[in-house]
Write a structure and sequence with these properties.
Blueprint: H1 13-29, E1 33-39, E2 53-59, H2 69-74, E3 77-80, E4 89-95, E5 98-107, H3 111-125, H4 127-143, H5 148-170
Organism: Priestia megaterium (Bacillus megaterium)
Protein name: GrpB family protein
Pfam family, one: GrpB
């Protein structure tokens, strides 16, 4: 059974945890990481979240990630292969379904990279959208209390709509 989906209130400790983890990652990936970003709900001040730090690293080529598997493993990150996400390399720190950190590696400035940045920045800038998302997450955490996949899938239409809205505003 999955660990219960619980949305915690925002804490500035998430930003501090990111800064600490970013230093570790820079030491390991300094010559491969173009950019390291704090993404996901823990990166948006005022937004409730599952207490899992989402970190995104941009690289020139996803083929470079093979050489990072062992060094990342040495600091607690396990490489998890996801066939359904061919443009992402994923690592988890912590136990299955109850990890503390999720590391997403994408080709820098790919569509996936840009969508994550757009979504995060839109939530940071638009309080009413952030509040809608927060309320949705609370409702879905109750509905899918022990079903993380269901919870994540149920958020997807909202996330997609916000990304499309953000793209539309950029092109205005």
């Amino acid at each position: 059974m999955d660990k219960q989906v619980i949305i915690e209130e925002y804490t500035s400790n998430w930003a501090l945890s990111f800064q600490e983890e970013e230093k570790l990652l820079k030491d390991i990936m300094s010559n491969k990481a173009i950019s390291i970003e704090h993404i996901g709900s823990t990166s948006v001040k005022g937004l409730g979240a599952k207490p899992i730090l989402d970190i995104m690293v941009g690289v020139c080529n996803l083929g470079e990630v093979v050489g990072l598997i062992e060094p990342l493993n040495n600091i607690g990150y396990e490489h998890i292969f996801h066939e359904e996400f061919p443009n992402r390399r994923f690592f988890r720190k912590g136990l299955w379904r109850s990890g503390t950190h999720h590391l997403h590696i994408y080709k820098y400035e790919s569509e996936e990279w840009n969508n994550n940045i757009l979504f995060r920045n839109y939530l940071r800038k638009h309080l009413h959208i952030r509040n809608q998302y927060n309320q949705l997450k609370i409702e879905l955490a109750q509905k899918y209390s022990f079903d993380r996949v269901g919870y994540t899938e149920a958020k997807a239409p909202f996330i997609t709509a916000v990304i499309q809205k953000a793209k539309g505003e950029i092109n205005v």
